[in-house]
Every structure is written in structure tokens, then in C-alpha cells.
């Protein structure tokens, strides 16, 4: 199907008016297409054969059949403090495709929920979100997606004047924990039920009509969130703003702000420079997600028995640990389970922290380990600790029955060669600021196939350059 022929429906607009606000799109001046994702187009079920149409659609100058743009209302706990009304301040929904994707423009102007914001998004943050959601998908992590990115001549005031951009993003769900919190705080409990039915119809269809559906939804969300966090930790992803309004009811990664992949392993790493307390630091994330689930539990308390929810939530830590260890064993090429595996892993992380070892590069390098320690030891200044650890690893590998070749093959398909580190995103952004968008498309190539060899981009597969590693990012976007 041509994109031009895509029809959308507006199921969220069928909910009562407190849930949303119909809004007009404010197009950017002189828009131009920077990039689009062929993978996102494929799952949406459309062919992009008219880039002019895609540009106009992303800029809100043409509409899909059936579309009636709107913003969604929600609340949320921001850095631990409840804000009773947030909402889509710079996101405008276009509707839902038959294939189940809710299309949304980020940066297309003000909405009822913009508060002091201008409803815009600047080029650098839009490039980051566009690339990163595709990269997370490439790493097999549940996420919203991005179909297209446009730039413009539109001036947007931030610390300096910058140019406005829009990402046409898509998700199977845009409902947040904070959407439930909004109605709970207003004591509109009937709306909680309406919303829960909507979420089940959208993201938990197998529970539809079940007697216990609301509880089962919560229980499954605990599970999905535990899995999501295990994957974030496993690939070394720091979200940066894990407020409850940025937590997905479908268990997806959404709302990419000042996120980052780890350069060197650092459990304290906090990508968001406004997060001075390190609330959302790398190692805090699994526990923060649990706290966020507990806020959701409160919001759902008029609908679901709290004790049952508490019991379900108590399982979170165990589920997380199970998913995490399964993932980490794969990263280490271990098929069997050994009771010492957790301790072995902690030991490794201690060394990585101390020696400031590049997280992605380490796991990619160990994916070819055959007993020769040279390449791994070269990553350390002080080699003895890693050398000792590798002896332990050698012993551990003896318990495995697979051939070395088989282990290598599996590890190379588990440990990415490329993750979009900040300096790589910055490379694409710097080029884009000079009017050259080839960096965006190069990074998209890596995002789509992070486990593959890309000889022409080998320079991005190494250790992050010292001057640009583990930097913090501004929230202003
Ligand atoms: P975030 O933490 O980026 O997800 O944003 C928190 C809230 O602020 C959301 O409700 C956003 O829609 C809103 N927001 C952020 N930046 C802007 C902006 N430039 N204009 C309007 N709303 C914004
Ligand atoms: Mg947000």
C-alpha cells in the first residue's frame, strides 16, 4: 500500500473528552526530509514512493484518511514529585493504522498540555530519538518506533537559537502509567475502568473478556517491565528520565530524552545532567521501575485488590533477576546455569568499573575468546584482576558442552558490535548542523543491524574516544 492510501482510525478519541484534546498541527517553515526508516514503513505496511508526501505528512500539511489530530492527557511523578497534569505538550497523535500502530508527531506545535513549552523539538534531540528507537528495535528491545525525521528553517529558542524538527513516531501504545495516575488523583475512578479496558483492548488483547482481566494486565505489565529493564541493563542503556509519565503501559521503551548507552562500564553513570542526585543512574533503573509500578498500583487501587497487586509486584525483583541473568549468561556464552554465575558477574563488573572498560567493546571482544587473553587484557591498565577473572571464566566454560565455534556464533549474535553511543549520535548531529545528513543515515544503518560487520564504519566499533565518553546531556530539547 502507498503511504498516501493509509487509513487511520481514532479509537482513543472515542474515549470521553477528559482523555484528550483535539488539536491543530502547526507546520514548520520550509520542511525537508532528513531520513526515513524502511523497517518502520514495512511493519506499518506501507511503501514510501513519494517522499514529498511523507515530508508533508510529518509536517502536518496533509492528512491521512480518517485522521483527526489530538493530544493525550496524563499526569506523572517527575523525579519523585507528583504533577497532576502533564499530557502531550509537544506530541500530536494522528490516529491508528489497521496494523496497530499509533502515529504521532513530536514537535508539531503547542497543545492544550504545553504549559510553558513551545511545542517544538530541536534538530539534535529529534535526530537522537529517531535513531535511538530504531537502534533499540535492532537490539530486540521493546520500543516505540520512528518512521521519518524532517528538518526545517524554523527558529526555535533554546539556550541558543536552534532549528525545529519533527519525528513521525509510532507505537503500539502511547498510554503511560501517568495516564492512570491522572484519573486516580482526580478521583475519577470510572475513567480508570474505561482506560484499563482501552489498554487491554490495545496491548493485552488475550485478556479481553477474562473475569480477572485488570489484575492480569497489571501482573503481566510487572513481567514485561522486568524483562524490559533486564534488557536495558544488559545492553547498558540509561534512559535518563524514568518519570512515571515516561513509563509505557505496554512495557515499551518510550520518550527518548537524554538517554545514553554506557561507554565505560559505570554503575553510577547518569546521562541526564539535571539529575544531580543520580535518581535515574544506570544501576538505579531496575528499582526505579519497581517504584514506578508501585505508583501505578496506587492509581489502580480502586479497580484491583491491592493485596493481590502487592503480591504481583513482590515478584518483580525475582523476575527481573531471572531475565537479567538469562540475558547476561547469553552475553557470556553460557548455556548452563551455575549457582556462582551471579558472583562471577559481579566480580567482572567490579573490574570493569575499576579499570574503566568499554562495556560494548568488552562483550564483543569476549565473543571471540578462545583462551588467548591478549585482546581482553589490553583493555586494562592493571591486568592481574582481569587475568584472574578469565581463569575463573575458563573453568566455568569447561562446564559447557558446546564447541567454541558454536559459542562464538551465539555470542556474536547477542553482543552487538555497534551501539549508538553518544559520540556517534553527536557525529550525526554535527554533520546535520552543517546540512549533511549522511551521518544520520550511516547511524541508521548501524542501528538496523548492530550485530553485523560494517567494514566502512569500523571506526565506530571501538572503544569510545576518551574526550567524549561518559558525558552528561542536557534535558533541554
Ligand atoms: P519529558 O520528560 O521530555 O517526557 O517531558 C515532560 C513533559 O513536558 C511532557 O508532558 C512533555 O510533553 C512536556 N514538554 C517537554 N518539552 C516541551 C516543549 N518544548 N513544549 C511543550 N511541552 C513540552
Ligand atoms: Mg515524556
Question: Can you walk through the features of this model?
Answer:
With 477 residues, the protein is of the alpha+beta class. It has a domain at 334-412. It is built from 16 helices and 14 strands. It has helices at residues 38-44, 51-58, 123-138, 177-185, 189-203, 213-235, 285-300, 306-314, 316-331, 341-355, 359-366, 374-377, 384-398, 404-412, 422-433, 438-448; strands at residues 8-9, 20-22, 32-36, 70-72, 76-78, 81-83, 91-97, 102-106, 121-122, 145-151, 155-157, 161-171, 237-238, 260-261. Strands 1, 3, 7, 8, 9, 10, 11 and 12 form an 8-stranded antiparallel sheet that branches. It has a two-stranded antiparallel sheet with strand order 2-4. Strand 11 (155-157) and strand 12 (161-171) form a beta hairpin. Helix 6 runs antiparallel to helix 7 (285-300) and helix 15 packs antiparallel against helix 16. The radius of gyration is 23 Å and the shape is globular. The two termini are 34 Å apart. The model has no long low-confidence stretch (mean pLDDT 97). Bound molecules: adenosine monophosphate and magnesium ion. Adenosine monophosphate binds at residues 86-90, 114, 117-120, 241, 243, 246, 255, 257.
Amino acid at each position: 500500500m502507498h503511504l498516501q492510501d493509509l487509513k487511520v482510525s481514532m479509537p482513543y478519541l472515542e474515549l470521553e473528552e477528559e482523555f484528550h484534546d483535539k488539536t491543530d498541527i502547526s507546520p514548520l517553515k520550509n520542511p525537508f526530509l532528513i531520513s526515513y526508516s524502511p523497517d518502520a514503513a514495512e511493519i506499518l505496511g506501507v511503501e514510501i514512493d513519494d517522499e514529498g508526501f511523507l515530508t508533508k505528512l510529518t509536517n502536518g500539511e496533509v492528512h491521512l484518511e480518517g485522521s483527526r489530530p489530538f493530544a493525550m492527557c496524563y499526569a506523572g511523578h517527575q523525579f519523585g514529585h507528583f504533577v497532576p497534569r502533564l499530557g502531550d505538550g509537544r506530541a500530536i497523535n494522528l490516529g491508528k493504522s489497521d496494523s496497530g500502530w499509533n502515529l504521532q508527531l513530536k514537535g508539531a506545535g503547542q497543545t492544550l498540555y504545553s504549559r510553558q513549552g513551545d511545542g517544538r523539538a530541536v534538530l539534535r534531540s529529534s535526530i537522537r530519538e529517531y535513531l535511538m528507537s530504531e537502534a533499540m528495535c535492532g537490539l530486540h528491545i521493546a520500543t516505540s518506533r520512528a518512521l521519518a525525521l524532517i528538518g526545517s528553517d524554523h527558529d526555535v529558542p533554546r539556550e541558543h537559537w536552534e532549528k525545529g524538527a519533527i519525528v513521525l513516531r509510532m507505537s503500539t501504545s502511547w498510554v503511560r502509567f501517568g495516564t492512570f495516575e491522572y484519573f486516580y488523583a482526580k478521583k475519577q475512578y470510572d475513567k480508570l475502568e474505561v482506560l484499563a479496558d482501552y489498554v487491554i483492548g490495545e496491548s493485552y488483547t488475550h485478556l479481553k473478556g477474562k473475569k480477572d482481566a485488570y489484575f492480569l494486565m497489571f501482573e503481566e505489565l510487572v513481567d514485561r517491565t522486568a524483562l524490559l529493564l533486564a534488557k536495558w541493563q544488559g545492553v547498558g542503556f540509561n534512559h535518563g528520565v524514568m518519570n512515571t509519565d515516561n513509563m509505557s503501559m505496554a512495557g515499551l521503551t518510550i520518550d527518548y530524552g537524554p538517554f545514553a548507552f554506557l561507554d565505560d562500564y559505570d554503575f553510577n553513570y547518569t546521562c541526564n545532567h539535571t539529575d544531580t542526585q543520580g535518581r535515574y543512574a544506570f544501576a538505579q533503573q531496575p528499582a526505579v521501575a519497581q517504584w514506578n509500578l508501585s505508583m501505578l498500583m496506587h492509581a489502580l487501587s480502586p479497580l484491583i485488590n491491592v493485596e493481590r497487586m502487592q503480591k504481583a509486584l513482590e515478584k518483580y525483583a525475582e523476575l527481573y533477576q531471572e531475565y537479567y541473568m538469562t540475558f547476561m549468561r547469553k552475553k557470556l556464552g553460557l548455556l548452563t546455569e551455575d549457582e556462582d554465575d551471579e558472583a562471577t558477574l559481579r566480580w567482572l563488573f567490579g573490574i570493569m568499573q575499576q579499570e574503566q572498560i568499554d562495556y560494548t567493546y568488552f562483550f564483543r571482544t569476549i565473543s571471540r575468546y578462545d583462551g588467548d587473553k591478549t585482546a581482553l587484557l589490553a583493555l586494562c591498565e592493571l591486568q592481574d584482576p582481569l587475568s584472574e577473572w578469565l581463569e575463573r571464566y575458563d573453568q566455568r566454560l569447561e562446564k559447557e558442552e558446546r564447541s567454541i565455534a558454536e559459542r562464538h556464533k551465539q555470542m556474536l549474535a547477542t553482543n552487538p558490535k555497534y551501539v549508538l553511543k553518544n559520540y556517534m549520535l553527536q557525529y550525526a548531529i554535527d554533520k546535520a548542523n552543517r546540512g549533511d545528513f549522511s551521518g544520520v543515515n550511516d547511524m541508521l544503518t548501524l542501528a538496523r543491524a548492530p550485530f553485523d560487520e560494517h567494514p566502512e564504519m569500523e571506526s565506530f566499533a571501538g572503544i569510545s574516544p576518551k574526550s567524549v565518553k561518559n558525558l552528561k546531556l542536557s534535558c533541554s530539547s
